[in-house]
């Protein structure tokens, strides 16, 4: 194996482990201006925390539009914060306790309006906020058994609580924390895969797997494409890039956003490092009813190429993540 292939495989292994990689050249829209927190981008954090009885932590809202109702500890990130620091601050301010994240549980987005990071976390100290400590952040906090009547601010927290319960009982993806890598825009490193069957009866070991690589990174070796997100942060970036690569075949391909392998963020320098890179696993496959093909669709752009993964260990890891859905879920709220 030459040094370029070795470096590429090492980087792919890092991404599969939830680690980050330095951002270099971007594919498509390279001139997009940096995002600035609280000006043209909004990040929200929320926490799902359980006690030993599997009761969930809720806080009673002090805001005028939802006064007295109950919700998960949540709020907007502030300047110079990491995502985890924002989580810990919000939980402390609203609930009175200290916490440590166990894993990101879900990422949700609503176009360019906001991105919400929900964590499964655990209590590490402090004490529940009482009514005597009520302030502009919240009125009080308490543990909820999920059955006793309680006026909720919104029912959108119920699926988040359910996801936390399920993950505690059976983790469906490796624990994932944001990693500290600076980025000036919201973008995605796209881990785009194509799997084809060998046509034999024993397909589990014989299926072939390709990755879409970018040739645009002129300062180094071919790498996974990185696309700047414009109108939507996560949902349609892969669609747009794939359409750029295979316009003639695009209508005959299903594009499945499997989920997120990693989240990269720094945020220490306002207006310069407020961006986020989502390392996103994507599966391309034939549309239903069309004949199986033994190789990925031909590319119509010299900026990209297909790379067949022949390293059996690496190929097995990628295929297993796809098969098991072992990735951080992402949802678009439209």
Automatic annotation (TrEMBL):
<dbReference type="GO" id="GO:0044715">
    <property type="term" value="F:8-oxo-dGDP phosphatase activity"/>
</dbReference>
<dbReference type="InterPro" id="IPR020084">
    <property type="entry name" value="NUDIX_hydrolase_CS"/>
</dbReference>
<dbReference type="InterPro" id="IPR042970">
    <property type="entry name" value="NUDT18_NUDIX"/>
</dbReference>
<dbReference type="InterPro" id="IPR000086">
    <property type="entry name" value="NUDIX_hydrolase_dom"/>
</dbReference>
<comment type="similarity">
    <text>Belongs to the Nudix hydrolase family.</text>
</comment>
<dbReference type="GO" id="GO:0046872">
    <property type="term" value="F:metal ion binding"/>
</dbReference>
<protein>
    <recommendedName>
        <fullName>8-oxo-dGDP phosphatase NUDT18</fullName>
        <ecNumber>3.6.1.58</ecNumber>
    </recommendedName>
</protein>
<comment type="function">
    <text>Mediates the hydrolysis of oxidized nucleoside diphosphate derivatives. Hydrolyzes 8-oxo-7,8-dihydroguanine (8-oxo-Gua)-containing deoxyribo- and ribonucleoside diphosphates to the monophosphates. Hydrolyzes 8-oxo-dGDP and 8-oxo-GDP with the same efficiencies. Also hydrolyzes 8-OH-dADP and 2-OH-dADP. Exhibited no or minimal hydrolysis activity against 8-oxo-dGTP, 8-oxo-GTP, dGTP, GTP, dGDP and GDP. Probably removes oxidized guanine nucleotides from both the DNA and RNA precursor pools.</text>
</comment>
<keyword id="KW-0378">Hydrolase</keyword>
<keyword id="KW-0479">Metal-binding</keyword>
<dbReference type="GO" id="GO:0044716">
    <property type="term" value="F:8-oxo-GDP phosphatase activity"/>
</dbReference>
<keyword id="KW-0464">Manganese</keyword>
<dbReference type="Pfam" id="PF00293">
    <property type="entry name" value="NUDIX"/>
</dbReference>
<dbReference type="InterPro" id="IPR015797">
    <property type="entry name" value="NUDIX_hydrolase-like_dom_sf"/>
</dbReference>
<feature type="domain" description="Nudix hydrolase">
    <location>
        <begin position="40"/>
        <end position="165"/>
    </location>
</feature>
<keyword id="KW-0460">Magnesium</keyword>
